[in-house]
Amino acid sequence: MKKRLRILGNIVIILVITIVSILNYRELRSKHIRSFENYLANVTSYFDRALSRNIIKSNSTDNFVSNTEADEAKRTNQAENTKQIISEDNGLTQELLEQTIDETIEAFNVLVSDLRITVMDETGKVLADSNFPGDKLNNHRARPEVWGVISGEDSLSNVRFSDTESVERLYFSARSNHNNMIVRAAVLMDILINAGSTITLYGVIIGGIALVLFNLILSLLFKKQDKHQADLEKTLAKIESGDLSARMEEDRHTFADYYKFAENFNMTVTNFEQDFKEMQAGRAWLDAMVNSLMEPLVVVNRDLQVVFANKYAKTLFNRDIDPEVNPYPFVLLTHEDKLDDLCQKVFINGKTVRKEFKLQVTGRYNAFQVMISPVDANDVVVLFNDISYEYEARELRSSFVANVTHELKTPLTSIRGFVETLRNRDNTAPEQINNFLEIIDVEAARLERLINDILRLSDIERLNDDSELEDFDLVELLDECLVQLDDQASEKQINLIPSDDPTFLPVKANRDRIKQVLLNLLENAIKYHRMKGNIWIDLRRKGRFVTIKVKDDGYGFDEQSAKRVFERFYRVDKSRSRMLGGTGLGLSIVKHIALLYDGEASVKSIPDKGSTFKVILKI
Question: Is 143 a domain residue?
Fold first, then answer.
């Protein structure tokens, strides 16, 4: 403001001085021109009167001249040589005009030294001139001041540049009483040039003084304002840098307006500081609450850009960019265009929507129930409720029901079929009846095994930990299992080879469940092994964990089957599994027992070279 006022004030002073100087110069010029016009009018009047006197005097002198022939001859010769007769009526000659011009200039030379007089006839032809020979000058008819008199004016003045002299002159023309001649008088305008320089000089001096005084007064007036402004800028700079404790100086000796402004400003900053601290506390509390959520939460604006994401969302979707600093498209987070459409729908309807999606997260796909709710006209909040386990459980339950139904239906169908056959046994041979009964017994046993395995698996899944724990020797339990399976292995000429070390391995667990793990692993290895081969069993303890490893040199299977072999009812070779009486639940039971004891089950297999099953148990 001060800078603008200073610049504007200086410009106004300069403009005023300039305008006043111009007006003074124009007024001075106007006065000089009027004065010179009167002066030149007197010159032309004087010239006309002087010419009349000289004509009378010349005629009187001629009457006393001798009339002798010698004198007449002498006068005739003189007229031819020295006089150019302009008018025979009154005896006007060029010599008489020049004489009158000289008299007039001499009479007025005291006032103006650059006076010029020109005499022309009524057509503008120059008869005599005080500065140049008349015959050297061209016709002046076209000169404005001459043309005006020729046109009928008695007198006319004009200021113009002289082409003959290359100077600016004031010309005044008037009609003479003698022979309608035109007498023109002129003076130089250099006095106005000097006057203009003087006025300019005075204007510069006065303007300079005025500018100095103005700026000095302005500096004195705004000295306190400068201090006030500097204090304000300093305080604002501190506040901008984050120092909300900065305050302006409240100087009671300054202007009342400045003091009032500082007081109000400090009060405003104090209130702002208090509100900001409360807002920060609230923001910190809200951030802590939102970031503590174990569910992804993001905020999306109308441009479908993520403008906020909690800590879990950044981790789960592997996005380290801070959207509050650099917003990015929502689709880059979810890789699902349909979610963008849902956000648009919420912006239009203003209602919360829920829908399930399978979305790509770090290294896998998770199932989410996505809830999108409007926050305001420009933002929506998107909450991702991870239902992967529930989704997987639903799929597993559906798959389990389907598999159980299928597995139960097969033996039941077989049993019912043979029962119907036995009812109509009139045409059935006794040996055939015995064969049917044997098949019914096998299918019933298979059905019993399936139900028992389902019950075991359900019992294991229901438990969070195993309460029936006892201390026993795992090596002794392995020997017991090997003895139990020896006949089954001998039928296929398979050697069961336990490791020599350790000879004693004490553990604390549910003995029946650990035996079930060993039996399922060994039975599985024997059943799906070719004739003749070897199965190696290795037991090892590392810290609190025990590793059970069963390795065979049987058929093996591919990597895809290795990923699914622990699933319920999954069989690498379904026809062989049913033929061998497998339920498809043995390895699933092993896996869930391992999980019950905070462990895991895994397998590595190479087709036609064999498989290695490893179970880790915290026992």
Answer: yes
